[in-house]
User: What shape does this take?
Amino acid sequence: MKKIIGVLIVIGLFGPGCVKRAPSPGITDSEILIGNVQDLSGPMKELGAIIPNGSNMYFKYINDQGGVNGRSIKMLIEDHQYNPQKAVAATKKLIEKDQVFCMFQVIGTSPCEAIRPILAETGTPLIAPATNSGTMSDLTKQAGDLIFHTDTGYDRQAEILVDYIIGKNSDAKIGLVYQDDDYGQNVLLGISRVELKYGVTVQKESYQRGAVDFKGQTMNLLKGGLTDVIIAGIVREPVVIMKTAEAMNFKPNFYGTGPTIDARVGKMAGSAGEGFTATYWAYMWNSDEAGPKLYRELCEKYDIPQPYIGLYHYYGFATAMLLVEGLSRAGKNPTRNSLVKGLESFDEWKSNTFPPITYSRNDHAGVDKVKLVQMQNGEQVVISDWLE
Assistant: This one.
C-alpha cells in the first residue's frame, strides 16, 4: 500500500498541473527582452539613433501603463555598421548570449538577409525588419515563416513609380540609380516586371554601399537624355546625385524609393531637391490620423528632442505598436510560437499608423501600397491617394 501511495505522489508531482514550464528565452515574470540590430556608427548612423528612439518612446508609454500582460518591454540594441557580417555576429550575441525573446526592426536589406540562418536555427521571430525589401515577406525563403514585414516591398514601389511616370508621360525615358546589393536586387525585380509590361528599357546605374561620388552615374544619365530618374538609395545618395545633376544642368524629374522619404533629402539638396518625389507606406507623422496624433502627443509628453521628430522616428513608433499588439496576442505565458500565431491572427488590424494590416499563415507581407510625397517649397506634401 505504501508503494502505491508513493507512486501516486510521484505521478502527482510530475502531472500536468504541477509541472513548472521552462520560461521562454527573454521572458521573466516582469520583463520581455527583445533584440534590435541597428547601424549606430556607419553610413546610416542617424537612422540607427532615431528609429529605435521612436520605438522606445512607445515602449515607455506601454510600460508606464503596466506593460504587456504585466511585463515591461526592454530592448537591447547592437551595432552592425550596415555590415551584413557584423549583423550576424550581433544577432548571435543577442539570441545566444543575451537570450532575447524575439528580434525587432533590424535595419538594412543585406543585414536582414544575412541573419536568416540564425533565425531559422533558433526559431526566433523577426518583427518589422527596417527594410522595404519584398524578400522579407517571401515565405519560401529560409526563416520566412518567422519574419513579419510591415513595409511595401521595393519591387512594388518601383512598379508603382514607373506606372505613375508613364501615366504622366507615355514617352518618358526612365533611369534608375540603385545600390548594388540585396536592396538594389529587389528594386531591379520590380523594374524588370514593368519593362516587360510597357515594352520599355530603363537605364540602370549601380553604386556600391557607402559610395559618396556619383559623377559617373549622373553623367551617364545625362548622356541617356532621361526625363525621369528613380534613386534607390537612402539619404546621402539622392542628395549627392541631385546636386551633381544640378551642377551639370541636368534636370529630370527625380523620384526615390522608401528610404529616401527622409525629409532631410529634399532639404539638404536645396534647390536641386525641389520636386523630389518619394514613396511612403504609412500615414504621415504630421497628418490628422489617430496614430500620428498619438505620436505627436507622446513626443511632447516624453520631451523628445526636436531633431528626432519626423518620419523615421515615427516609423520606430509605428512598428513598436505592431510588436506590442503581437506580444499582447501571444498570451499571458508567451512563447516564440505563440507570438507567431498571435501576429498571424491580424485581420485588417488598424493601428492608424499604417494602413490596415492582415497577416496569416500564408501571408507575412503587411502593407502593399504607397502614397507619393513631394518636396514643394522646402516642405513635404502628399500628392497622391494610396497607389497599388
In short: Residues 45-64 form the longest helix (20 residues). The radius of gyration is 23 Å. The chain has two domains: 31-152+286-357, 155-280+372-382. Confidence is low (pLDDT under 50) at residues 1-21.
